[in-house]
Amino acid sequence: MMIYQRPKGTRDLFALELKRIEAINYQARQFFESSGYVEIKTPTFEFAQLFARSIGETTDIVEKEMYLFEVDKRQYVLRPEGTASVLRAFIENNLRVPARFLYIGPMFRKERPQKGRYREFLQIGIELLGEGEPFYDAEMIEQANRFLNLIGLNEKIIEINSIGCPECRRRYKEKLLQYLKPKIDRVCPDCQRRFQRNFLRIFDCKNKTCQIIYTDAPKITDNLCDQCLNHYNQVKNFLNAFSIEYIENKKLVRGLDYYTRTVFEFKHRGLGAQNTILAGGRYDLLMKELGGKDLACLGWAMGVERLLLILPENLPEIKQKKKIFIIVIGERFISEMVKIRGLIQQRDGICILGNPSATLKSQLKKANRIQSDYVIIFGEDEEKKGVYTVRNMETGYQESVEIKSFADYLNKLLQ
RNA sequence: GUGAGUGUAGCUCAACUGGCAGAGCAUUGGACUGUGGCUCCAAUGGUUGGGGGUUCAAGUCCCCUCACUCACCCCA
Question: Does residue A116 share a domain with residue A80?
């Protein structure tokens, strides 16, 4: 029956939903620009190799979730995340540190859609390049927390962890292996696969028996090298200094390979299975990995759709414009109609024209159906008296306004 | 990629063990010729997602397929 339909996991956005997205984006710009971040717009597609290199060849994103396409024998991909592009742009344009970037835009991952998860989805993220001190880990989290409070999201759970550096992880992996060896038959097949590919992610498993086994397993957090441990402890101290309430989750890990040391997630109840609204961490090795200088960096991203699922429907920033319907009776009044419309549009009102050949009744009916706030009527009677008739469609109150004082009248009406 | 649930008019949903496809809302017209909403009357609207099978007979039972939703995987 339906010939054309949108691709799975994409959405058509209309009136209120678009307004809500715009409201969030606007707030993000205001807030983060006031904290020294500058907006950056990178392309929505990049060379595929950029993400393979940064996110990790063996991650699910790179292995099966990328929208790949080839043009002129070159491999491209619709970006699955924002960080790699920002670093690429920073390196390519030879910018200076420390640098703070804000990005806003769509990302693409070929996953099965679910509540709060789409194939084309919107992210707002910030990146702080060239700051390695633990103070900035805490500041990033504090910024995220304050922004979410600002847009009305007070109930949230902040979880943090440290996944150390490659050196910590190498030693820890051996220790974990010792513990798991005798039990490896009892964990689920997914976990056996995970252990081979990205062993930290076994802790993400939701299988009951797996979780019981992992509860007593050694944790990366308890096996950090001195520097990483010191860094982590300082992050926690600074978070306390910022009065941020957080939970240490020793099982918290990340799905992207480039993270080091601090990782964190902001979660919310009542979002269903996809309950993470914001996530990020430190990625001190990525800049060098992508061919830049050896600079410590950190950042996070939040999912706009997930935010909108839990925020109230009418965000305070959305102001409704007045909708005014113009009725003239007879085609000879079209020039008058155009004049009125110009006055309304100059004053930022919404103006919709009725069909001049139709009856007053049918035009009013249409004005009502599209939920006009006011109707302006001009016909023979008004022409004789030199007035416009203005009808309030909610109350039904109607008044005559002198044509020469109409502009002033509109100023008040649309203020 | 795996599993479960759902698909009937533009929308929200009915139709007992297989037996004439229905209601409310919306739309259009009229009651009502420069005054919308309310009320009343009437009309329009369907390949029951698509294909195949069983049956005298399928919206209903069986198989396949497509779409949506939720969950797994994974992630914002």
Answer: yes
pLDDT (tens digit, 0 to 9) for every residue of chain A, 415 residues total?
566 788 999 998 887 888 899 999 999 999 999 999 999 999 999 999 999 988 888 888 887 899 999 999 999 999 999 999 999 999 999 999 899 999 999 999 999 999 999 999 999 999 999 999 999 999 999 999 999 999 999 889 999 999 999 888 888 888 888 888 888 777 777 777 777 777 888 887 777 777 788 888 888 999 999 999 999 999 999 999 999 999 999 888 887 778 899 999 999 987 888 899 999 999 999 999 999 999 999 999 999 999 999 888 777 767 778 999 999 998 899 999 999 999 999 999 999 998 888 888 888 988 988 889 999 999 999 999 999 999 999 888 999 999 999 999 999 999 8
Angle (nearest 5°) at CA A404 between A362 and A384: 55
**Whole domain around residue A359: which residue ranges?**
323-414
Quote the number of domains for chain A: 2
Nearest residue to B68 (CA, C1')? Answer: A8
Strand B, nucleotides covered by protein (CB < 7 Å): 1-3, 27, 29, 33-37, 47, 49-50, 67-76
A289 CA to B23 C1', in Å?
66
Find the farthest-apart pair of alpha carbons in chain A and give their distance in angstroms, rounded.
98
Same domain, A347 and A369: yes
Å between A172 CA and B60 C1'? 60
Residue A175 maps to a domain: no
> Is position A381 within any domain?
yes
> Smallest CA–C1' separation from A266: which nucleotide?
B76
Cβ–Cβ under 8 Å, residues A322 and A349: yes
A328 and A388, same structural domain? Answer: yes
- What are the Cα distances from residue A222, in Å, to A61, A102, A281? 29, 34, 18
Q: Based on the domain organization, do A232 and A356 belong to the same domain?
A: no
User: Which of A264, A285, A310 is the last residue before a domain boundary?
Assistant: A310
Report the distance separating Cα A90 and Cα A236, nearest Å.
29
CA of A71 to C1' of B51 (A): 37
Say whether both A275 and A138 belong to one domain. yes
Residue A63 (CA) to nucleotide B32 (C1'), in angstroms, measures: 68
Looking at the structure, tell me whether residues A368 and A289 fall in a common domain: no
Dihedral in degrees, nearest 10, Cα atoms A217, A60, A143, A316 = -120
Q: Which amino acid is at A78?
A: L
How far is residue A45's CA from residue A47's CA, in Å, rounded to a whole number?
7
